TrEMBL record:
Keywords: Amino-acid biosynthesis, ATP-binding, Kinase, Nucleotide-binding, Transferase
Annotated ranges, domain Aspartate/glutamate/uridylate kinase: 3-282
Reactions catalysed: L-aspartate + ATP = 4-phospho-L-aspartate + ADP
Native species: Algoriphagus halophytocola
SUPFAM superfamilies listed in its UniProt record: Carbamate kinase-like (SSF53633)
EC number(s) stated in the UniProt entry for this protein: 2.7.2.4
Gene3D superfamilies: Acetylglutamate kinase-like, Aspartokinase, catalytic domain
One of the record's GO molecular function terms: aspartate kinase activity
Family indicated by similarity: Belongs to the aspartokinase family.
Pfam family name, one: AA_kinase
Keyword match Thylakoid: no
Protein name from the UniProt record: Aspartokinase
């Protein structure tokens, strides 16, 4: 019987020196053998790296951005480590490697592969700093490159896991280490069979924790967040949001599918298949029990509000006076698949198809270019997708008010609407 526990700490839990001190305090009485600690990039590092990539693609000077990102990490280390500590040359070396990669040619054609090589530096630097700080606090952990464990295909930015090879790596490489020490590794990243770095999708560190748990048949996974657990709405937007003490796998999966940011959408399936419970707990108040997601949880009928920003609303209208047919939908979906774009909402009428997508760099122009010969295409940027599970009429009135609704859809248990994003 496995005794392994998986802890995952996201970007907010390692965003600055005070956060790392808090992380060490959480682990001080919990650290033991058979514990895997998965960490994300620090704070908004991934966003900063994406901005650098955008500037490079547009042939703009990104050197100041790169220097600022390096200084951000060095500043955290200056607050935590003595001047002579080895972490400082290690970080500088990472950024030498990063700039070496950034000096290579980049185009829209190879963007996804380039993206994965660059974005992975956020997790690599973060995990090295966390590991060195824990050791400085006499909390001995081993550093593990997740790319030596998680094997994927070459679908860059949205890599699919090779479960058989990943499980073999975890059993042969990770399990023997865990028998003697806790191990710290990175979320979000993997490697294909050619040795190229891949990523599992934005915010994919939760998924990494679930992958390792399934491969090691862990006792549980705990995701440490800046909220007391899974709530029925974002407490930053809805101060009266309520906590779910427990959720079933299916209900949690439904919430993540529609965009609930507290858990990555792919996290639930491997845990449900292995019946491994998932705990969502607060790193602000680690003694709170949080939310338990497991097999036998009762159905919760509390309405859940999920808001997704940075959405694109696209409408495809046929130009030859025919009605929408299956081939029209298939054509659009095939182009979306090629561009690795996922639909968050779909609605058809007699002569048009409307879809809602996450905004992604330069992908809109590519999609329009590919389909403008078949359809008249209109789009709106800067939209917000509102999803309410188990909606109540009074709640919808309060939520939407006098907003201009661009698209609306209601099913038995779900309400969705697209509106112009509000400034907050």
């Amino acid at each position: 019987m496995s005794k392994t526990l998986i802890y995952k700490f996201g970007g907010a839990s390692v965003k600055d020196a005070a956060a790392l001190v808090n992380l060490a305090d959480i682990l001080r009485n919990r650290l033991r053998n058979n514990l895997v600690i998965v960490v994300s990039a620090m704070g908004k590092s991934t966003n900063a790296l994406e901005e650098i990539l955008r500037m490079k693609l547009e042939n703009k000077d990104y050197s100041i951005n790169s220097t600022n990102l390096k200084d951000f990490h060095l500043s955290i280390c200056r607050d935590l480590f003595p001047e002579s500590h080895m972490i400082f040359p290690q970080i500088k070396n990472y950024f030498i490697q990063l700039n070496h990669e950034l000096n290579k040619a980049l185009s829209a054609v190879n963007y996804d592969e380039f993206y994965d090589r660059i974005i992975s530096f956020g997790e690599l630097v973060s995990s090295r700093i966390v590991m060195e700080y824990l050791c400085l606090q006499n909390l001995l952990v081993l550093w593990q490159d997740a790319r030596e464990l998680v094997v994927t295909n070459s679908d860059f930015r949205f890599a699919k896991v090779n479960w058989e090879e990943t499980k073999r790596n975890c059993q042969l490489q990770l399990k023997p280490k865990l028998a003697q020490f806790p191990v710290l590794t990175q979320g979000f990243i993997g490697r294909d069979r050619q040795g190229k770095t891949t990523t599992l999708g934005r915010e994919g560190s939760d998924f990494t924790a679930a992958i390792l748990a399934a491969c090691l048949q862990a006792v549980s996974v705990t995701i440490w967040k800046d909220v007391p657990g899974v709530l029925n709405a974002d407490p930053k937007r809805f101060p009266s949001a309520q906590l779910f003490d427990e959720l079933g796998y299916a209900q949690a999966a439904e919430m993540t599918y529609y965009g609930a940011s507290v858990i990555h959408p792919k996290t639930i399936k491997p845990l449900a298949n292995s019946r491994i419970p998932l705990f969502v707990r607060s790193f602000v108040d680690p003694d709170l029990p949080g939310t338990k997601i497991h097999q036998n949880a009762p159905i919760q009928n509390l309405a859940a509000i999920i808001l997704k920003r940075d959405q694109l609303l696209l409408s495809f209208k046929v130009t030859d006076f025919t009605f929408i047919e299956e081939r029209h939908i298939s054509l659009i979906y095939e182009k979306l698949r090629q561009l690795k774009l996922s639909v968050n909402m779909l609605q058809t009428s007699a002569i048009s198809i409307s879809i809602v997508l996450d905004t992604q760099l330069f992908k809109l122009q590519q999609l329009i270019s590919e389909l403008k010969g078949e359809f008249e295409i209109k789009y709106n940027e800067g939209m917000e997708l509102v999803t309410v599970l188990h909606p109540q009429k009074e709640l919808l009135v309060d939520l939407l008010g006098e907003d201009e609704i661009f698209l609306e859809q209601t099913t038995r248990n779900t309400f969705q609407a697209v509106r112009k994003a509000k400034i907050s």
